[in-house]
Specification:
Blueprint: E1 8-15, E2 18-24, E3 36-43, E4 52-54, E5 66-68, E6 73-76, E7 80-85, H1 89-103
Length: 110
């Protein structure tokens, strides 16, 4: 299984036997040294910060969600349970911008 950037998956994050939706943000690597993915968690709690990206209403989620970019982390790909869907590309572009901000990086685009 090679999850692609932009996919929203249900993941076992080891939190009280719950699975939570996450957005995959790692690049697709055809030959990774380890089967690990980088993700941004989705939450329903909006703090209205620059670290959050409001997601459009997605039919496969129970509620309006926010991508919490400050919570970026990695997990073994085996802990991804199933793909739920994908956000529109405009939302992924906002998540990428928030990642650059959160990590203190300048845009790579010229």
């Amino acid at each position: 299984m090679r999850p692609r950037s932009g996919g929203i998956w249900l993941a076992d994050l080891g939190l009280a036997a719950k699975t939570l939706p996450v957005v995959i943000v790692s690049r697709l690597d055809p030959d990774p040294p380890q089967a690990v993915v980088v993700y941004v968690p989705l939450t329903t709690q909006n703090r209205n910060s620059l670290y959050e990206v409001e997601m459009p209403r997605l039919g496969f989620l129970d509620a309006i969600s926010v991508a919490y970019v400050q919570g970026i982390a990695s997990i073994p790909a085996i802990r991804l349970e199933r793909k739920l869907g994908a956000p529109p590309e405009t939302a992924m572009a906002e998540i990428r911008r928030a990642q650059l901000f959160a990590l203190g990086l300048k845009s790579l685009a010229k």
